[in-house]
Amino acid sequence: MTLDWYKGTVLEQEIPDFKVNDVKLITGFQYYLGYNSYYDQVSFLEMDFVLEIEDKKLNLKLKFSDVSSLDLLGFGGQFNQIMGFSVENLNESGYEKQNKYLVEDYENESIKFYCANIEVLSLIKM
């Protein structure tokens, strides 16, 4: 698993030793259709995560573009805990789209989808 998806973003600048197991909860998500930079209509997913790093809590907002095969399981209630967050770069696996990613919670399978791009929208201390 590579962490290239956040290189050069505010996430790397603020948390240089970021690890995906710092992601603890999903606090919100919005799925919608829109247009990419080539004016193709694609699906987007914006998600809010809680990061716990040492004694700090942060809110991380990510935008995933060209989302496909979205699976959500067991969402609802007060806590939507992530036990094994993973972002895998599938670019070398022969996928037709450059920089295609598999995003999932590999422990309890609460979320799984593919996307073409990941953008860090914000990182805010709670």
What would the principal axes of the Cα set say about the shape? globular
Q: Give the DSSP E fraction (strand runs of 2 or more residues).
A: over 45%
Radius of gyration: 14 Å
Tell me the count of domains.
1
Main beta-sheet strand count, sense and barrel state = 4 strands, antiparallel
Number of strands: 8
Helix content: under 10%
How many helices? The count is: 1
Order of helices and strands: HEEEEEEEE
In the predicted model, the low-confidence regions spanning at least 5 consecutive residues are none
- Mean pLDDT across the residues is 88
Structural class: mainly beta
Spatial order of strands in the largest sheet:
1-2-3-8
Q: Distance between the terminal alpha carbons, to the nearest Å?
A: 28 Å
Write a structural description.
- The structure is a single chain.
- The chain is mainly β.
- It has one domain (4-125).
- It is built from one helix and eight strands, in the order αββββββββ.
- It has one helix spanning 10-14, and strands spanning 23-35, 41-53, 56-65, 68-72, 85-89, 101-105, 111-115, 117-125.
- It has a four-stranded antiparallel beta sheet with strand order 1-2-3-8. Strands 4-7-6-5 form a four-stranded antiparallel beta sheet, with no helix packed on it.
- The radius of gyration is 14 Å and the shape is globular.
- The protein starts with 9 loop residues before the first helix and ends with a strand.
